[in-house]
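Suppose a colleague, Dr. K., hands you the sequence of a protein chain of 168 amino acids and asks what its three-dimensional shape might be. Before reaching for any lab equipment, you can write down a predicted structure in token form. Begin with the sequence itself:
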Amino acid sequence: MSIDLLKRSLLFVVFVVMQAMILGRIHLFNIATPLLYIYFVAMIPRNYPKWATLLWSFALGLAVDTFANTPGVAAASMTLAGLIQPYLLELFVPRDSASDLCPSMRTMGVAKFTYYIVILTVVYCLVFFLLDAFSFAWIVEWALCVVSSSALTLLLIITIESFRLRRA
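The predicted structure, expressed as tokens, is then:
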């Protein structure tokens, strides 16, 4: 078993347990829920096999669905995030950078990483809450959930990245 697979599997378990035990129970003002597990997909390196990215994304979404009682919502949303992640990463990474570049503030720069993670998180939250509501009847509440959950998730991701940046 390769070290990368072992590390990725451990991260997978950490994100699922953290979402199921802690973050899934947080609902600020009944609209904002941190969805930190999107960070797992955002950290997948450049030139990682697309089929493996989709498989990891779907499995993570399915695991979160199992614990959160949201049948298929997280799995579908994470699969879409896994589908667009390689193409989105290529937009923000220079062509002459390393082929196995792992997205972070250190490797991409603060601005490019922030744009990358904002787009990925907002797309994920849009799809997640659209599938969860499956209606535009409560459009204002839906928009508030998307904006506030995206902001809370981005705050957590940027905080984690800042600690990783200072550590190195």
